[in-house]
Structures are given as C-alpha cells and as structure tokens.
Design a protein that fits this description.
alpha+beta, six-stranded antiparallel sheet, two-stranded antiparallel ribbon, globular
Length: 154
C-alpha cells in the first residue's frame, strides 16, 4: 500500500519544474557577486554612517545600489538603485511628476538644484530567486534608458 501511495508523488516530481535557485546570502558581497556574474561592475563601499552600498554602471551612468536593513553580519532586506544627472537648466517638478505618473517601476525626484534622479527598489525579504534579482537590475537599466531619453541626456 505504501508503494502505491508514493507512486503519484514520484510521478509528480518527475514532471514538476525544479524550483528556481533562491538567494539566501543577501549580504553586500553576495549581491555584488550576482551583479558581477550578470556582467555589471560591482564595487562595494560604505556610507559615512556605516551602511553598505555597491557602485555599478548601467547605460553609461554610475548607479549606486544602497542596501537597507542589513543586520550586523546578517542579511539585508532591500536595495535601492539610484543615479542622477546634472542638467544645466534643471527640470521642473511638473516634468518629474509626469515621469512618475507614466512609470510605475521606477520613481524620479529633483535635488535642490532641480537635477533629476531616478531610483528603483528590490525587496529581499524572504530571499529572492537569482533570476529575479538579475531581472530587477535589467528592468531598472531599461527604465534608466527611457529616463535618459525623457530628460534629454545623450
């Protein structure tokens, strides 16, 4: 009887796809390694207040990846990718609001000189499939290309 009960489970196991490999090492070094493996530059640094960040490049721009809620010696729960552009005349708040209205996968803001910045988030809580992390970076890179066109950056 046990053999009969195990047979459906064995058959299902043969046809179900393997689960995606999940990142459990969501430390700065692990994220940097995944970036590098995906073909991005990945230099680890630390902010003045001791928070880790990774500097990378996308679309000929320097992108800073800020890691959040990193337990001491433990995993980080989220990251934000951010870059900005120094425009001679700056931009209006109406223009940036239009970007934010039209694009749900990133957000933009102006600094105190009205220079535009774009950023996007990836949550790492509970782990993340490697492919999803790379897709998150790739998606931000696509948004960045569109943003550069939007602000008239060559």
């Amino acid at each position: 009887m046990r053999v009969v009960a195990l047979l459906p489970a064995l058959l299902l196991g043969a046809v179900l796809p393997a689960a995606a490999e999940c990142l459990t090492d969501v430390l700065p070094q692990g994220i940097a390694a995944e970036l590098a493996e995906a073909g991005y530059k990945a230099d680890i640094g630390t902010t003045e207040d001791g928070q880790p960040f990774i500097e990378t490049g996308m679309q000929s721009a320097t992108v800073t990846v800020f890691l959040y809620d990193c337990a001491e010696g433990g995993n980080c729960t989220g990251l934000t990718m951010r870059t900005g552009f120094n425009l001679q005349a700056g931009m209006s708040y109406e223009q940036i609001n239009q970007w934010n209205y039209d694009n749900r996968l990133s957000r933009a803001f102006l600094d105190n000189e009205r220079d535009p910045y774009i950023e996007g988030d990836i949550t790492l809580t509970g782990g993340l499939a490697r492919d999803d992390l790379v897709a998150g970076f790739s998606g931000f890179e696509s948004q960045l290309a569109d943003f550069k066109d939007f602000i008239g950056w060559d």
